[in-house]
Amino acid sequence: MLSRQALRAVRATAPQRALPMRAVPVRSFAAAAGGTEGQPPITVFGLDGTYASALYTAASKSSSLDPTAKALANLGTIVDKDAKLSQILAAPTLTPEDKSAIVAELNKHAGASSETVKNFLDTLAENNRLGLLQGVCAKFGQIMSAARGEVEMTVTSAQALDSKTLSRLETAVAKSSYVGQGKKLKVTNQVNPDIVGGLVVEVGDRTIDLSVSARIAKMNKLLTDTL
What is the pTM of this model? Predict the structure, then answer.
């Protein structure tokens, strides 16, 4: 959560403060991170992906990848949990004073004293792109996972799974052909009551649907085709 000083920027969403569109200089974070050194191991798309890739290159060049990754993870968690903050960041009428206060608070909550993170947030603010922060954090996480040789495994269940069950699933999948040699699994459990029961396991770009809802759908299809 941001402090009261930063939350005052909510007022910027008021319609009466709408500003006319005009051309403004755009600060380029990617320019400082140019060249082939420290290129991201994967390509992520979209404007948020462009910022995430530039941040990875800049952090790689400054040997600050780990603290930058931790800072972005902290920021991503904060934005995910605070819907009001997302509205503030996306407000198109933030004044320079608003942006300065918000960036100062974000730097504080990022838990990093890295100039790379500070410059990144300053660039988002100057380019009126603070609203991209949530997407940048997510895509930077994807890049870091690839750099660490991690394969993401998402296990969807009707109810939250205990750590013992998740550990057994991780061990079983890690030994399968779904995970390349030398790769590490990064396991996430998502809850979706709609699957009724069973599991839906997603490993990389592969999906293993063992849910009850999938079985019911197959049964209904068979009955429909028969009739």
Answer: 0.67
